[in-house]
Amino acid sequence: MAKELKTQIRIEAAPDQVWDVLTDFEKYPAWNPFIKSLTGQVAVGHTINVRLEPPEGSGMTFKPKVLAMEKNKEFRWLGQLFFKGLFDGEHRFALVDNGDGSTTFLHSERFEGILVPLFNEMIEVNTRNGFEDMNQQLKIRVEGLYK
């Protein structure tokens, strides 16, 4: 079973400016309402530590593996609950240059595994709200710094 969650927001700043804020992980506690911390060596093939706190949901800390880290374009990781195939999530942040000084921030996750149907409501409500909250706060922070 698979499920994909996709969100996006337009940010009035260039991709490199959005990237600078998105990848300044030490400052996440100051502005990010969804990802409260992200630590470790953020490089392809490495495991990082991530603390998520979705609105009206239980927080969790997990250790995903970084799949992609392409400056000003994409940051992606794969997290798993206990073992592969149970409940896996491939989380993705992507930046699209709109060519007019603005950026479309794409925030998505593809969930796979036998437990996905059991978490459907959590994904559609808590996780989606967490993505949307983070997107909005990223927009506010970037535009506040660079406009």
Automatic annotation (TrEMBL):
It comes from the Bacteria. Gene3D superfamilies: 3.30.530.20. InterPro entries: Polyketide_cyclase/dehydratase, START-like_dom_sf. Coiled coil: none annotated. CDD domains: SRPBCC_4 (cd07822). Pfam families: Polyketide_cyc2 (PF10604). This is SRPBCC domain-containing protein. The lineage of its organism: Bacteria, Pseudomonadati, Bacteroidota, Cytophagia, Cytophagales.
